[in-house]
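Recap for those who missed Tuesday's class. We walked through two folding examples back to back. For each one, the amino acid string is listed first and its predicted structure tokens come directly after. Nothing is annotated here on purpose, so try labeling regions yourself before you check the end of the notes.
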Amino acid sequence: MVKILAHRGASKERPENTMSAFKRAAEVGADGIELDVHLLCDGSLVVHHDSKLGRCENVKGNIYDFSKENIKSFSVGDWFSRKYEKEFIPYFIEVLEFLKGNNLFLNVEIKSDGIFMNNIADEVVSLLEKYNMINRCIISSFNHFILKEIKEKYPRYRVGILYSDSFCYDVVDYCKAHKFDAIHPNFREVDKNLVKLCHANGILVNVWTVDSYGDFLRMKEYGVDTVITNDVTNFKPIQKYTI
């Protein structure tokens, strides 16, 4: 069965990467959630997509200029609806506390466009260890150096490479060479042959971001392992009645 992960939480119904979005994902039956993690200047881990603030909040600036104490000084839900004006950037530990009460799988995407990245791998894994998440998570990133560091230091953790259509390596050979566990491509870059080749080499295929009925069914036919979507409710009933 294809695993369904809620992209930044149930982001069609709730403001992305907020506790409200993660709770809604659980309510509508997602198999797991995908989220983005940044390391702040004081070493705190927070959940947010953009490093440059302004798209989902009424403040401008770089997320890395904030500390744990002031990162919650502005709303990240008001842009979506006044109903969510009390939604603030979650600490990563808040999400892990929430996950203690359910069986949701976790896809942690590590963001790496800041200047405080030297120990982000250690910080992320340290919290995952604290909450016993090793069998309930996968770590992904466009920064493959971070993923290489994780596989070298913490080989039991699963990692998946995010990459663009300009990626110049054979992804299967690349994963085998670095002992990566999965590929996380845009679904438009996936075909049945790629999935078959990955599976033959023990590599998972987790695709993003699938929001249409037809695209989901095609990915399911190809045999992908995970579909990441903004709209979980669009696919959970489909799985129930078409498998």
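Example two. Treat it independently of the first, because the proteins are unrelated.
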Amino acid sequence: MIAVKEAVIVEGKYDKIKLSSLIDGMILETDGFRIFRDKKRMALLRRLAATRGLLVLTDSDSAGFLIRHYLAGSIPPGRIKHAYIPDIFGKEKRKRRPSKEGKLGVEGVPSEAILKALKQAGVGAEPEGAPSGRKITKMDLYRAGLSGGPNSAEKRRELLRRLDLPEYLSANSLPEILSALVSYRDFLDLTSKL
């Protein structure tokens, strides 16, 4: 596994699943073209770019490049890196037919090609600017009443509002994002006021 300090941006959940077996780091999805109209998600990406930097890894088709260019135009150049997978023609195993352009996406290319692309992009090791100390866990969310209890969804939405984060972030993705943005002590302070 490669330790990646930057937040890695991929198009969808299958890309994220593939990448999570190859890297140790934060992986976020654009949900495809949803990123174009999701102001909260874009604000989160800008915040992460300011603290950790972003590494964009999209498919090598025209849709992937459209998303990549949109992100490149929205994030300061010194805070964004790009990893490019090669054009490999074929069909992903889970799909009935090849994509419109016939190219494999991040989920379908061999792991070695992804690792090579990441190395060529110059991935790092430890997040700079991220809060240091204890990481926030799912158990912390549970203890704070943000998951698995009465009114936990409402409390979670309120925390997301206070931190100006996208309202649809799941309880599963929240610990990693919170750990990148606030310290454990700040998390305890915030959740005690909910």
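Answers for example two:
The helical segments are 13-20, 39-51, 62-74, 111-121, 138-143, 152-162, 174-181, 184-192.
Residues 39-51 form the longest helix (13 residues).
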